[in-house]
Amino acid sequence: MKMENKAKFEIEAKQYEVRLAELEGKKKRICEMREDGSYTKEEFLERKQEMDNQVAAVKISMAECKIDQFDIEAALAYATAFLRDLGRQWFDLRPETRPRFQRLLFPDGIPYTRNKPPHLCIGVGIKVLEPRNCQ
Question: What is the pTM assigned to this prediction?
Answer without folding.
Answer: 0.50
